[in-house]
Amino acid sequence: MADLTTNFLGISSPNPFWLASAPPTDKEYNVRRAFEAGWGGVVWKTLGEAGPPVVNVNGPRYGAIYGADRRLLGLNNIELITDRPLEVNLEEMARVKADYPDRALIASIMVPCEEAAWKAILPRVAETGADGIELNFGCPHGMSERGMGSAVGQVPEYIEMVTRWCKQYYDRPVIVKLTPNITDVRKPAAAARNGGADAVSLINTINSITTVNLDTMSPEPSIDGKGSHGGYCGPAVKPIALSMVSEIARAQETAGMPISGIGGVTTWRDAAEFMALGCGNVQVCTAAMTYGFKVVQEMIAGLSQWMDEKGYESTSDFVGMAVPNVTDWQYLNLNYVAKAKISQDDCIKCGRCYAACEDTSHQAIAMSEGRVFEVIDEECVACNLCVDVCPVENCITMVQMQPGEVDPRTGETVQPDYANWTMHPNNPAAQAAE
Ligand SMILES: Cc1cc2nc3c(=O)[nH]c(=O)nc-3n(C[C@H](O)[C@H](O)[C@H](O)COP(=O)(O)O)c2cc1C
Description:
The protein is an alpha/beta fold. It has helices at residues 28-37, 86-99, 115-127, 150-153, 156-169, 186-194, 238-250, 268-276, 286-291, 295-310, 352-360, 385-389, 428-433, and strands at 6-8, 11-13, 17-19, 41-47, 62-66, 72-77, 104-109, 132-136, 174-177, 199-202, 206-208, 211-213, 218-220, 230-233, 259-262, 279-284, 338-342, 365-368, 372-375, 396-400.
């Protein structure tokens, strides 16, 4: 059986599934239930002090985007950091950590950008026995207007400065949680490393307005007729998170820096993808809020089964394995040729592939009598749109052409190997050869 135990920054947990800092980790009651359900660790809901009091709205604080089956795809929230007293949170954390020594317990912290504020809170957090801290430089609403959260995460100099204070006044691992509301995520990640951070975690939520009520003309969630932007998370943000994680994993300035992956993790497969891109573990919020704590049991079972099938004995066997395969566009092999293929056995004759290809793509699907849809190889550029719009999984596949075959679209022979690789003109090697 695969061993799911992970050791992230020297913090051991029985599996790589941690709950992210959010309502699921807001109090002892929740965290105990989460640990009983099997979560490997938690990042406690962000603690704060020394700023103005934290008062949440009394109206709806969440909004959502749904798929056609009303499955929740994206969640928006306008919630602040914890509104419970710091002392109560610290006492609860200490009790929980004492009772669950084998689980990871991380304290998320957000206090004003003043050295004294960090210096004051860190020893109190240390006393709880928490395994480490996570600096919340990511919340995009409510706290950022007060110069905290993403207001810090958007200024690399502040990140570096605060991280340095934390490393000075706290002797356990420091994780810097990054905001995605920034142009180039490598810069804040590098600043975290320069400040001495042991790891980065990402992503926090993305600025968003999920809907506008067209009767009241107010963004939702609406509080007495007015709304403000919130933070977006859930399955919809996973592609953005994966891309940002890969950028940090590939960047020279941050190469080898431990990463905790966050953003839309709902299944074991999502987790494995983050880990393949370099994350030592993952954090989950929306999936737990949607399906409850026991969702972790599916994640554990799925990951363990997949690892067994692949022959991975521990998670470190595959962490980062996909990183070398992430490249810049100009390095893609122009000799690679594929064609779409429609399985007539699986086709339900809905014609979506035909409509999409005929109207908006390359007119590479023919419809014949009886609504039989077939690919015209002479026109197909393998763009994948038909696969993407087909409602039947694996009904349309992209089949790679073999070396020596002639592409009926271009009349060119598919090249046998990488050595004969046709480079894109933007590839620096192609420019050098000219
Ligand atoms: C209601 C809600 C409250 C959150 N509160 C915090 C918070 O206090 N501190 C923090 O660092 N992140 C907070 N987050 C962000 C999550 O920790 C996480 O980064 C984000 O939701 C992406 O993960 P997910 O797609 O699994 O939800 C919150 C998210 C939600 C939905």
